[in-house]
Design brief:
Layout (H helix, E strand, L loop, with lengths): L3 E6 L4 H12 L6 E7 L5 H12 L6 E2 L5 H12 L4 E4 L5 E2 L3 H12 L4 E9 L11 H5 L24 E4 H6 L10 H12 L3 E12 L16 H16 L3 H19 L9 H15 L9 H12 L2 H15 L11 H12 L3 E8 L8 H13 L4 E6 L13 E3 L3 H9 E6 L14 E4 L17 H7 L2 H8 L4 E4 L2 H10 L5 E4 L7 H4 L2 H11 L6 E6 L15 H8 L3 E5 L16 E3 L6 H7 L2 E4 L4 H5 L6 E4 L3 H8 L13 E2 L2 H9 L6 H14 L7 H10 L28
Parallel strand pairs: 1-2, 1-4, 2-3, 6-8, 9-10, 9-12, 10-11, 12-13, 13-14, 14-15, 16-17, 16-19, 17-18, 19-20, 20-21
Antiparallel strand pairs: 4-7, 5-8, 6-7
C-alpha cells in the first residue's frame, strides 16, 4: 500500500497537466501512486497521462467523463486509490520540491490523523511574488494533534481540498464524497472537518497554486453561482445534525456567509437571478443562524443585517453606491486623427452589422494565410456575409480582383471595424480596436510554435525587448473568442503563451487545405510561374528570423550548394516575411520567391524543404515530401529565442550542421531515404493531426454559420489523406 495517492483531475488543463505530473514524479519521496483523471482515451489530457504512465509504473490513469465535472473526477480517483492518504492536486498546479517528504515527516511525528492541513502558495501567472493565504489560519492552530473543537476557525470550508491530505480509511468510513456541481470544495471540506477527530497542520508549503490570468472559473459570470447556496446548505444541515457547539458553529456560519455575501455583492457574477439568490440566502441565514450570533462590525456587519432582514432593495442600493465610487469610465479608443477618432466613436454607437466580417493578415501585408483561406471558403458557404479585407496602402494592389478591401488607418477601415460582427486575424488588430458585446473575434495564428511565444518570451531578454508591453499583448488576447489550432502541441502552447478565456478550435490551418486539394496540374502551373526549369529538383530554402541579428543573412552560399548537391538542383529562397521588400530576384539556379504572395504555392512547387527552425516545416510536412533541418546554430537559437520542444529529439528529417553535410545528403540521396521517411512519419503523426483539407470549412461552419461542433466534418485520419503530388520523383 503506497503512502500517498495523488489524484490529479485534468479536464480543461491539458496544456499544463504535464507540468503537474512532472512535479510529482520529481519528488524525492517516492512511495506514492499518481492517478491522473482524464476524459476518454485519445483526448489531449489522456495522451499526456499515457506518456507519463509509459515511463513510470506509479502513474495509473483513470477516466471520468467531462459531464461529471471536477467532483466526478476526484471521486473517480478516490475510488481507484489504494494509498494510506489522499492528496488532491489540480491539473494546473504543482507540488513544490520536497513536498511529499515534508508530509511524510510530519505524519511520522503526529501518527495517524484524519486531516492534515497544509500551507500552500498562490503564484501569480506572470511569476510575481506568491501569496500564502492559509498561513494566518494555520498559525493559530495548535502545534500537535488536536480535535476540531480546539481550532474552530479551521472549518474546512475556506481552504481548498488540495491544501490538505486526507486519511483514505477515514474518507471511506464516513462515506465522504465530493458533491456534484460547482464550489464542490465547500461541500467536501465542511463535512470532512465536521466528522474528523484527529487533525494536525503542516505550516510548510506543499502545493504551488498557479493562478490563471483569467482568474478562477468559479468567479466568471453565470448561473453556477446559485450552486454555492446548495453547498452552503449541505454543510449547514450536516452541522445541525451534529449539534455543534456555539464555539464551532459561529466561525463556520460566518465563513460560509462571507462567501455568500461576496457573491451577492458582485452583480457581474450573477447576470440574472440576483434577487432570488438573495432571498434564498436570507432564508438559509435565518434558519441556521447560531443562537446568540453577533455579526461582524463595519460594512460586512451591515450586509449581514440586511441579509437577515431580507432587505434586497437596501442591499442592492448599498452595493450600487460602493461600485459607483470605484467605477472608472472606459478608455476612449484612439485611432489616428481627431476626426477619424470621433467618427469611430460614432460608429461604435451604431448596431453591429450581423452580416459583416473583417479580415486581416500579418498586420495588413496582403490577402494571405489563414484569413485569406477562410475568406475564400466563406464566399462559397456563407455568401450572405459581406467580407472586407484590411491591407496596408502599399499592398492594396496585391488584393485579388473581386475581394473587397479597406486600407488600414482609413476612415472606412475604422467604420467596418466598429460595425463588424466577425473579426478574423492571424496576428492582432490595432490597439484601439474595441471588443464590442456580440462581436466574435477569431485568432487564426500563423504557424505551429517551435520558438517561445507570448508571455513565455518574458524570460528571454532579447526577445522580450522586441516584443514590447506584455500588458498590451494580453489586452489584445482578451478580445479573442476563438483561437485556431493545427495540432495538440499548439493547443498546449497557446494555452500557456496566451492565457485567456477564449475557446480552442482544433480544426487545422485553413491555409494548409491547399496541400490536400491541389492537383498535379496546379503544381505544374505554379512551378512554371516561378521559373522552375522542367525536370529540376526544386529545393525550398526557408530560414527563420534571428532575433539577435539586425538583417537577413541567408546562412548558406546557395549557388555553392546547388553546384555541390547535383546538376539538377535549383533553390527557391524564401526569407522570413520580415525581409519581404516586394521584389523578386536571384539568378542562375537560385530563385528568390520571398515576395511571392502565397507560401502554400511555393511549398507545392518544391520537391524538398531545407529549413532551420522555421514553422514552415510543420506546414510542409502535410505534403509528405522530404525535409532537411540545417541546424548550424541550434544551441545559440535555443538560448536566445527559447523553444518549447527539442527539435533535435524529433526532427522531420535528417539534421545537418555544415554546408558540406547539407550538400552530401542531397548528393547521395539520403535526404529522401527510408530513414528520412521514418522521421517524417513520426513528425507528421505529432504535428499534422488536424490538417486534412477541410479546416476552412470547419471554421466557416462553426464561427460564421453557428453550426454545433458535432455537425462539423470529422477530421480525416492521417493514413487516408492524399497530399498533392510532387512534380519530380524522389531520387534516393
Amino acid at each position: 500500500m503506497p503512502r500517498f495517492s495523488i489524484i490529479v483531475p485534468s479536464h480543461g488543463v491539458a496544456g499544463r497537466l504535464g507540468r503537474a505530473l512532472d512535479s510529482v514524479l520529481a519528488q524525492s519521496f517516492g512511495d506514492f501512486e499518481l492517478i491522473p483523471v482524464c476524459e476518454a482515451p485519445g483526448s489531449l489530457a489522456a495522451d499526456v497521462a499515457a506518456r507519463h504512465a509509459a515511463r513510470d509504473s506509479r502513474v495509473a490513469p483513470v477516466h471520468a467523463p467531462p459531464s461529471a465535472g471536477l467532483a466526478g473526477a476526484r471521486n473517480a480517483g478516490t475510488r481507484a486509490a489504494t494509498g494510506t492518504y489522499l492528496l488532491f492536486l489540480d491539473g494546473d498546479d504543482v507540488l513544490v520540491p520536497g513536498a511529499l517528504a515534508a508530509l511524510d515527516a510530519r505524519l511520522a511525528e503526529t501518527g495517524p490523523v484524519d486531516v492534515l492541513h497544509c500551507a500552500h502558495e498562490r503564484a501569480p501567472w506572470w511569476g510575481g511574488e506568491p501569496a500564502h493565504p492559509a498561513a494566518p489560519l494555520l498559525a493559530k492552530a495548535p502545534d500537535g494533534v488536536f480535535s476540531p473543537d480546539r481550532a474552530p476557525h479551521l472549518t474546512g470550508v475556506n481552504l481548498p481540498a488540495w491544501s490538505a491530505v486526507w486519511r483514505r480509511a477515514f474518507v471511506a468510513e464516513r462515506n465522504l464524497t465530493f458533491p456534484a456541481g460547482h464550489f464542490t470544495d465547500v461541500g467536501w471540506g465542511g463535512p470532512a472537518v465536521l466528522d474528523a477527530e484527529r487533525v494536525a497542520v503542516l505550516r510548510t508549503v506543499v502545493v504551488r497554486h498557479l493562478v490563471r490570468r483569467q482568474g478562477s472559473r468559479l468567479n466568471l459570470p453565470g448561473e453556477h453561482h446559485a450552486e454555492l447556496l446548495d453547498q452552503v446548505e449541505l454543510v449547514l444541515e450536516r452541522a445541525a445534525e451534529r449539534g455543534l457547539s456555539a464555539e464551532r458553529s459561529a466561525p463556520l456560519f460566518e465563513q460560509l456567509f462571507g462567501a455568500v455575501l461576496k457573491t451577492a455583492a458582485h452583480p457581474r457574477r450573477l447576470p440574472s437571478g440576483r434577487r432570488a439568490f438573495f432571498r434564498r440566502a436570507s432564508a438559509l441565514y435565518l434558519r441556521h443562524r447560531p443562537a446568540g450570533y453577533r455579526p461582524p462590525r463595519g460594512s460586512l456587519g451591515v450586509q449581514h443585517r440586511l441579509l437577515a432582514s431580507g432587505s434586497y432593495g437596501a442591499f442592492a442600493a448599498l452595493r450600487g453606491a460602493r461600485r459607483a465610487v470605484a467605477r472608472a469610465t472606459a478608455a476612449v479608443p484612439r485611432p489616428r486623427g481627431l476626426r477619424t477618432r470621433l467618427l469611430y466613436r460614432i460608429h461604435l454607437r451604431r448596431p453591429l452589422d450581423p452580416h459583416l466580417a473583417v479580415y486581416c493578415a500579418y498586420w495588413g501585408r496582403g490577402y494571405t494565410c489563414n484569413p485569406a483561406a477562410i475568406h475564400a471558403k466563406a464566399r462559397e458557404l456563407a455568401p450572405h456575409i459581406r467580407s472586407v479585407f484590411l491591407v496596408e496602402a502599399e499592398r492594396a494592389h496585391t488584393v485579388p480582383d473581386g475581394v473587397e478591401y479597406a486600407v488600414i488607418g482609413s476612415r472606412r477601415a475604422w467604420e467596418v471595424l466598429a460595425r463588424a460582427t466577425y473579426l478574423v486575424n492571424n496576428a492582432n488588430f490595432a490597439e484601439g480596436v474595441v471588443k464590442r458585446p456580440g462581436s466574435v473575434h477569431l485568432q487564426t495564428q500563423h504557424g505551429t510554435p517551435l520558438k517561445t511565444m507570448g508571455v513565455d518570451q518574458s524570460t528571454y531578454p532579447v526577445v522580450a525587448a522586441a516584443t514590447g508591453s506584455f500588458t498590451r499583448l494580453l489586452g489584445r488576447v482578451d478580445r479573442w473568442d476563438y483561437n485556431l489550432s493545427s495540432n495538440p502541441h499548439s493547443t498546449r502552447v497557446w494555452e500557456r503563451a496566451f492565457p485567456g478565456s477564449y475557446e480552442h478550435l482544433e480544426y487545422g490551418y485553413p491555409r494548409n487545405d491547399a496541400y490536400l486539394t491541389a492537383t498535379a496540374d496546379d503544381v505544374a502551373r505554379i512551378r512554371a510561374e516561378l521559373g522552375v526549369p522542367e525536370g529540376a529538383r526544386a529545393v525550398l530554402y526557408a530560414p527563420t528570423h534571428r532575433d539577435h541579428r539586425t538583417g537577413f543573412e541567408p546562412g548558406l552560399d546557395l549557388e555553392a550548394f546547388c553546384a555541390a548537391a547535383g546538376e539538377d538542383v535549383v533553390v527557391l529562397l524564401r526569407a522570413h516575411y520580415f525581409y519581404d521588400r516586394g521584389g523578386r530576384g536571384g539568378g542562375g539556379r537560385v530563385l528568390d520567391v520571398t515576395a511571392h504572395p502565397s507560401a502554400e504555392e511555393v511549398c507545392l512547387a518544391a520537391d524538398a524543404l531545407v529549413t532551420d527552425y522555421s514553422s514552415i516545416m510543420f506546414d510542409y510536412a502535410n505534403l509528405d515530401r522530404p525535409i532537411v533541418v540545417y541546424a548550424d546554430d541550434w544551441d545559440v537559437y535555443r538560448e536566445v529565442r527559447g523553444v518549447c520542444f527539442d527539435l533535435m529529439d524529433g526532427p522531420p528529417g535528417p539534421v545537418v550542421r555544415t554546408p558540406d553535410e547539407l550538400a552530401r545528403v542531397f548528393r547521395d540521396g539520403s535526404y529522401a531515404d527510408a530513414g528520412s521517411a521514418a522521421l517524417r512519419a513520426r513528425f507528421r503523426e505529432r504535428f499534422c493531426a488536424f490538417d486534412d483539407g477541410r479546416a476552412a470549412e470547419r471554421v466557416v461552419r462553426r464561427v460564421l454559420l453557428g453550426d454545433p461542433p458535432e455537425a462539423l466534418p470529422p477530421v480525416i485520419p492521417l493514413a487516408e489523406r492524399v497530399p498533392a503530388p510532387a512534380a519530380t520523383p524522389v531520387r534516393s
